[in-house]
Design a protein that fits this description.
This protein is α/β, with parallel strands linked by helices. The chain folds into 3 domains: about 230 residues, Phosphoenolpyruvate-binding domains (TIM Barrel, Alpha-Beta Barrel), CATH 3.20.20; about 80 residues, Beta Barrel (M1 Pyruvate Kinase, Domain 3), CATH 2.40.33; about 130 residues, Pyruvate kinase, C-terminal domain (Pyruvate Kinase, Chain: A, domain 1). Helix content is about 35%, strand content about 20%. It contains 18 helices and 21 strands. It has an 8-stranded parallel barrel, surrounded by 8 helices. A 6-stranded mixed β-sheet has the order 6-5-9-8-7-11, with no helix packed on it. Helix 2 links the parallel strand 2 and strand 3. Helix 1 runs parallel beside helix 12, helix 5 packs parallel to helix 7 and helix 7 packs across helix 9. The longest helix has 18 residues. The model has no long low-confidence stretch (mean pLDDT about 90).
Length: about 500
Amino acid sequence: MTEFFPPRSRKVKILATLGPASSDPAMIRKLMLAGADAFRINMSHGDHAQKAELVEAIRALEKELKRPTTILFDLQGPKLRVGHFKGKSAILKTGDRFTLDRKHTAGSSDRVELAHPELFATIRPGDRILIDDGKVRLKTMEVDDRSLVTEVQVGGTVSDNKGVNVPDVLVPIPSLTEKDRSDLIFALEQKADWIALSFVQRPEDVAEARTLIGEKAALLAKIEKPAAIDQLNDIIALADAVMVARGDLGVELPPEQVPPLQNRIIACARQFGKPVVVATQMLESMVSSPTPTRAEVSDVATAIYDGADAVMLSAESAAGQYPCEAVAMMDRIATSAERDPIYPARIHFTETRLEPTTADALAGSARQIASTVSATAMVCYTSSGSTARRIARERPAVPLLAMTPSLTTARRMGLLWGVQPVHSRDVNSFEEMVEKGKRMALRHRIAQGGDRVVLMAGVPFGTAGSTNVIHVVQLVGDELEKHTRSKG
């Protein structure tokens, strides 16, 4: 049994989605050893019993490897879909008229049911309607409370229950469906660390979810709707983290608009000091190939250079033929990008203004001190995780060991850039803080004899939000020897 999980050399985190290809404990273990830092459980597929088994496997692995491990439950959100067709599909020809209506009958090449009455009062002539991830594109011509008459602008085959996107309107549908509410109760019972909220369009969606979740889990808002971009600052301010969900963004917006939006969302999250995850089709070809395309490698690297806290694998690790290879490839891409001499300058392109608080001032100062004295590592003591989040926001050049007496806090810090969370009992005095900080830096192999380490904590100890101490220590050879003997 491993005494402590080997430390990661990289700072960007990898979030791996679990699914049919990665649902057994042995495969989950392989994914973690290959580089996965956190696991996503997608509530769009499978039942609660299957999800409970995934949680059980992750928690058993966490206990074995003595490494706090992050679990994110991703709620499905509302899905707009067409009805069914005679023969299960129909061919829509460019230039033809096609009607979406409220009739409960099988569709044809002329019409199909759209069982979402709220859309008929919202969509206007000229608005676009996209079917099957935008493969078929319609333009609304006539509207009444029972039908939407459209012109087919890009034709193709449409089959039963394909998804519908309406990018030009604010859809009057809550972000939490009845299924989501049931799934949320289950996720909280399973002690989820993070809840990902889909279909976020406005700050009120985040506020509603926050009310239901309370302090039982951290809340991540998925930015996948154009409407969310218009209120991005307010959404990020209310959430604990955000995700650039490029799949739906790329459907509802012209593809060329997605890269600058990705950069904008990352920069905005950085300014708020909130973790930001970049997701969707990052290594898509590895669903069926053992190697990615060079364009995909560059795509992942770009997100890392832009300063993302985490990058995510979806189908690659959930349903692909090469889940371990996909995680290992993402690990190598991230490690290579972070070793690039220009990486430190690139991630500081985004200016992160410090708030006029003691905690923010100390976080900024700690990063500068670590650079000035050529420290090898930083160690902070935190109850809520806010100190680690503030330091991570500054993107220090050295790893940060975040020690907390709260296992919940340790698990939630798994999405923070450069943070290695450690669940450990709290300290009670300044002397104990110093000695334990040195000991843990050695034990977790982020420093060795002769190295300087920057310590941060709050006095009185154990009080959330009281960070007010920075202390620089130098590890000497006999401490290393003493620590080695104590391990034996």
